[in-house]
Amino acid sequence: MAELRTNFAGIESPNPFWLASGPPTNTYGQVAKAFDQGWGGAVWKTIGEPIINVFSRYGSVDLGQTRMMGFNNIELISDRPIAENLKEIAEVKRNYPKHAVIASLMVESKREAWHEMVKQTEDTGADGIELNFGCPHGMSERGMGSAVGQVPDYTCQIVEWVKEVAMIPVIVKLTPNVTDITYIARAAVKGGADALSLINTINSIVGVDLSTFEPQPSVAGKSSHGGYCGPAVKPIALHLVSAVAADPSVKIPVSGIGGIASWRDAAEFIALGAGSLQVCTAVMHYGFRIVEDLIDGLANWMDERGHRTLADVRGRALPRVTKWEELDLNYHLLAHIDQDKCIKCELCWTACEDGAHQAIRRLERNNGGPVVEIIEEACVGCNLCAAVCPVQDCITMRKVPNDYAPVTWKEYAAGTGKLAPRSEHFHTATWSKSR
Amino acid sequence: MPDSTGALTDEQLASNFADIAPALTSDAALLEANKCLFCHDAPCTIACPTHIDVPAFIKKIATGNLRGSARVILDVNPFGHSCARACPVEVLCEGACVLNDRDEQPIKIALLQRHATDYVLEKKLKLFEPGKRTGKRVAIVGAGPAGLACARDLRRHGHDVTVFEAKTQPGGLNTYGIAEYKLKADVALAEVQDILDLGVELKTGVTVESIDRLLTQYDAVFVGVGLGTTKRLGIPGEDLRGVVDALTFIEHLKTHPYRETTVGRQVVVIGAGNTAIDAVTQAKRLGAAAATIVYRRGEADMPCYHYEYELAKRDGCGFRFNAAPQRIVPNGSGAVAGVEVRTASGSETIPCDMVIVAIGQGSRTELTWSKSHPKVFVGGDCANGGAEIVNAAAEGVAAAKKIDAMLGGKGR
Q1: Measured distance CA(B126)–CA(B195) in Å, rounded
Q2: Residues of A known to be catalytic
Q3: Across the interface, do B30 and A65 touch by the CB < 8 Å criterion?
Q4: Final residue of a domain: which of A320, A338, A370?
Q5: How large is the ipTM?
Q6: Which range marks the domain in which residue A157 is found?
Q7: Do domains B34-123 and B243-357 have the same CATH topology?
């Protein structure tokens, strides 16, 4: 059986699945219930001077029948008194000593304020501190949240203040709303951070009500940009986690956040370097119970693949993330259609014809014979047909062997290495209206 | 003949004749619409005689553009409402859906079409306008789906159209002949009204006796008179009390409160086509204790669609195959007492108190026209020998294109 026990920057938890700081970690009752259902840790909803929230805080993006494919919020940090939050954190830690309990903090950018907050937090027995330098809405207007996380110097400075007094591990939560997240990550490392967590939410306007022209979520007819999250942001988060995890001047543990809803998502984050995983939107959608399959699925996958511990998986995909100029130009692929599986929807033809490289030929519909075939001399192996095909494994991409040694752009541009021959047939699309 | 409708309450009758395929809720329609793959050169569109762009109208449902969706349908098929309810989709669009090849249920195209077209009916949206007046005049004989489909498109082209209908109501078999649980007359009439509202002149209760005379007054004539009466069996006893032809039986049912249609306790329906199924299921639904199809050939020879056969079986109807009717047996007072049939093992009398004859309609003999006259166009059952609403609509639309071209229009 796979070992899921996690040690993240010295913070131990029975498994890598933590609740991310947010509405699900607002109270003792929620966190205790989550731990009872199997969650390994929880980052408390950000504590600071209590705020006042607006009514109507969340907006959602549906894709077809999939609800909450993307999700955004204009909710601020905890609206509960600091003392009350700290008292409940202490209580959770006392009752669940083996679980990871982390306090997320956000206070005004003053050294004394941070010192005071960190000391109070440590009195609770919390396992770690997460600095919320990421929230892109509301708090940033007051010089906190992403207003800190968008400026390397501010980030470094506040981490230094915190580390002056902190005895427990300090995690810095990064905002994706920057040009190059590695600059901020390095600043946090410079300030002494023990770990990073990312991504916080992405600046967004989630939609507009077309009968009233109110942006969503609407507050008395108006709205403000909010933080975007949910399954839609996962690819962005995977990229940023890998960028930080692979940066040679970072080298501290990274907690992966952003659209994690299944064990597969989790495994991908781990493979790209995440040491623990934080989940919020999926819990807001389906509840704490999803942790059962997160754990079960991850463990079964690890058992099947022979990975004994999370360390066996962590970062395994990282060496395969390279610059474009290091990709092999002599690796040629060809789409292959399994005609027995084809249901003749012609989606691949439409996509290739209009959206790609005109490399699929349409045949007359007759007697149940094939209706599409790959024009091999035109196919550039782009994957689009396989992506649109609604039948599993009907269109597969097959390697076309050649006798040429691999050559990267870097080598080719430098005059070393030879390109394998490519078809002259590229870019020959013709069209006439009568066709 | 005892009337078995008395055995049922009003609620039971209403339930028996309620829509067999109820409308989708908005949520269900969205769910279904989002399942559509949006095929290119879609087999469903090819399979539809009017070639409705099915993926396009379904996509519009998915985006919440119901008005646009209905327009895609009704643009090429003026009878999109009735087709959504009465089309044999199992052998047309839904039968062609590529999801069948993925071992899944096909998209519920008919119900989605109903979802879109119901929307414009309920909102009373006018999707089409008459074209700029050309001054050309076209006479249409028969206000069934073929004639009215032709009329609608001719009005869109700007031609003046007069429709002559022998019956008191327009709509043809849509109004009088589709099984009540599929299409009710009020829906059929509302659909017709939409067409009439484009400025079609309708003359009901008028029997046209001469196409030639119309040709002296109109620039073109479209003939869509449908078929004639149900064929006769040609066996003794056919005129006994309690023998009725299927179309008369169904028309009565559709034009009166359910309780006013008489049905026997034991009903025999002779024939095994789709009309025979409509007759036997509706006899059963009216309260007959037993309703049985009697067919001279075998199960595999039945001309009805398979799903219609299945429906009749689900309704509890009986089937006697390889039983050729020889004579309708009278009781002592000149009413039906049974049907004598010849079977492989000899002669036998199936007892019954009502016989419904459903062996197909003959062609119209009372009206003739020149098939080669350049100004005479024909469509619907009288041209194709008897087919579906969708075929009639397609033929009416096609004829309108030809007529428009002949009258100097673009023929689109």
Answers
A1: 10
A2: 135
A3: yes
A4: A320
A5: 0.78
A6: 6-320
A7: no
What residue spans define the domains of chain B? 34-123, 137-228+363-406, 243-357
In this structure, the answer to whether residues A281 and A216 fall within a common structural domain is yes
C-alpha distances out from residue A16 to A239, A250, A317, B18, Å: 20, 21, 18, 56
Contacts of A350 in chain B (CB under 8 A): 40
Q: pLDDT digits over B29-74, tens only?
A: 999 999 999 999 999 999 999 999 999 999 999 999 999 999 999 9
Q: Which residues of A125-144 are buried (b: 16+ CB within 10 A; e: fewer)?
A: ebbbbbbbbbbbbbbbeeeb
> Residues of A with CB below 8 A from B46's CB?
365
- The reply to whether A179 and A260 lie within a common domain is yes
Length of chain A counted residue by residue: 435
Shared domain for A13 and A55, answered yes or no, is yes
pLDDT in tens, B213-226: 999 999 999 999 99
| Torsions phi, psi for B148 (to 5 deg) | -75, -30
**Can you tell me which residue has the tokens 């396992």?**
A127
Domain containing A230 — which CATH number?
Answer: 3.20.20.70
* Domain covering B137-228+363-406: architecture: 3-Layer(bba) Sandwich (3.50)
User: A130 CB contacts (<8 Å, ≥6 apart)?
Assistant: A21, A43, A102, A103, A104, A105, A170, A171, A172, A173, A197
- Domain check: are A199 and A108 in the same one? yes
- Cβ pairs A/B, distance under 8 A: 36
Give ∠ CA B357-B361-B366 in degrees, rounded to 5. Answer: 130
A-chain CB neighbours of B62 within 8 Å are 64
Q: How many domains does chain A have?
A: 2
Mapped onto helix, strand or coil, the DSSP state of residue A170 is strand
Question: How far apart, in whole angstroms, are the C-alpha atoms of residue B93 and residue B74?
Answer: 16
- Kindly state whether residues A313 and A286 are assigned to the same domain: yes
* pTM of the full structure: 0.86
Contact A64 B37 (CB under 8 A): no
Q: Which token pair is A295?
A: 């754990």
What is the tens place of the pLDDT at every residue in B74-107? Answer: 999 999 999 999 999 999 999 999 999 988 999 9
Interior/surface letters B340-375, b for 16+ CB within 10 angstroms, e for the rest:
bbeeeeeeeebebbbbbbbbbbeebeebebeeeeeb
CATH of B243-357, one of 2.60.40.730, 3.40.50.1100, 2.30.130.10, 3.50.50.60: 3.50.50.60
Cross-chain Cβ contact B102/A350 below 8 Å: no
What is the 3-state secondary structure of chain B? CCCHHHHCCHHHHHHHCCCCCCCCCHHHHHHHHCCCCCCCCCHHHHHCCCCCCHHHHHHHHHCCCHHHHHHHHHHHCCCHHHHHHHCCHHHCHHHHCHHHHHCCCCCCHHHHHHHHHHHHHHHCCCCCCCCCCCCCEEEEECCCHHHHHHHHHHHHCCCEEEEEECCCCCCCHHHHCCCCCCCCHHHHHHHHHHHHCCCCEEEECCCCCCHHHHHHHCCEEEECCCCCCECCCCCCCCCCECEEEHHHHHHHHHHCCHHHCCCCCEEEEECCCHHHHHHHHHHHHHCCCEEEEECCCCHHHCCCCHHHHHHHHHCCCEEECCCEEEEEEECCCCEEEEEEEEECCEEEEEECCEEEECCCECCCCCCCCCCCCCCEEECCHHHHCCCCHHHHHHHHHHHHHHHHHHCCCCCC
Q: Chain B: residue nearest A392 by CA?
A: B102
Q: Are residues A49 and A168 in the same domain?
A: yes
The CATH class for the domain spanning B34-123 reads mainly alpha
Q: Do B31 and A65 touch (CB under 8 A)?
A: yes
> Confidence class of residue B369 from pLDDT cuts 50, 70 and 90?
confident
User: What string of DSSP letters covers A109-126?
Assistant: S-HHHHHHHHHHHHTTT-
